[in-house]
Request: fold
Amino acid sequence: MRALQDTSTAEGNPAWASFAPLCTGPIFAVARRPNSGTLPAMTIPPSIAGLPARTPEFGALLAEWANLNSGSGNRAGLDRMRAALQVAFGGLAGAVIDEPPCPGTAAALRLRLRPDAPTQILLNGHFDTVYEADDAFQTCRWLDDRRLNGPGVADMKGGLLVMLAALQAFEATPDAARIGWEVLLTPDEETGSHGSRALLREAARNNHFGLVYEPARPNGDLVHSRKGTGGVVATCRGRAAHAAKIPNDGRNAILGLADFLQAASRIPDDLRGVLVNVGNIRGGGPATNVVPDFATAELDLRITQASDRAALVARLEKIAAAINAREGFALELKITFNRPPKECVPLEEKVFAAWQEAAVVVGVPPFTWVHTGGASDGNFLSEAGLPNLDGLGPIGDHLHSSREMLFVPTIAARAQLTALFLHRVASGELALRPV
Ligand SMILES: [Zn+2]
Reply:
């Protein structure tokens, strides 16, 4: 299935902005599938059908969670947030809870239920946010009766609530005992998941499919694939001299570096799928009558396919070599890659199709999936060999800013999609593994 580019815009799709979920009450009915001429009707268990009626409860709990500061650097806040999550998820009867340590940061929260069942599904999210304890943006406010503005409401405390609500509904379905699941909530996604990466790898080994609850795009779309992320520190050394010396044997490190940065910024013109951004630059000194002998800059690198990496590195090194060929200049590159790209695999296409089908059944506006430049822990799960679907959280907008907001009715709608998916896998209607 071809992925479209992510072009969703602020405030998203009007279809979602005015969306009110179907509230069918505790007794449920039978919904017709989109192509009901050939397929039997899909039955929605009452616990899943009843989720929209719980929207006020979800809104209140989300506000409570978002009012707890859990910036990636706030260890005490992360501990408080994990404790709140443990109380909420601890209500899932029978699940074994532990708090595996993450080197360098707060512990994660992990729950497992029925780990011996033949099919295992991972639900993954993070409870850190980009808002630290000294950020001015600390509390929630309702913009109207459906939109909540607050730190982390979309990225991704709303997603954690979708996981919880979906599992509560799924566990009340008749075939739930036939599959097992793991919930892994990590404390450091926003800063690169350095402490939790080993846990993500372990989870990838123990499960057959992963569900990642980063927010949906503002128009409701899911994530088809994500770019991989990296960076380069470029440091140029030249030769200091008096600016007025004639003839001048100084070598201006700022200009040498600038030539590199200009050329590096043009790499995406013909290496498609690659992004290069010069993020900062410093060099020279206070005196302008000195030819500066030092300048350095940091660049953000993004790649679409794992195979882009070698090509991008070769291009950067070729440009650096041309600068180094100039007498008196030494340009050094430190290139690192953190998250590898998340590329789409066939099982993900199958699960996405099931997601779209479920959307029709529960009556939510249609959506597709898109390629995005931002990375998530889905990248690490893919790298470790676990196919996963990402962007399964509720619909929000303006992430990483004080305008961050969430369409609260989409919590129940998105939870219905997850719960229905789990139900179909458990009932044997949808196979994730060759039997
Ligand atoms: Zn996130």
Q: What stands out?
A: The chain has twelve helices and 21 strands.
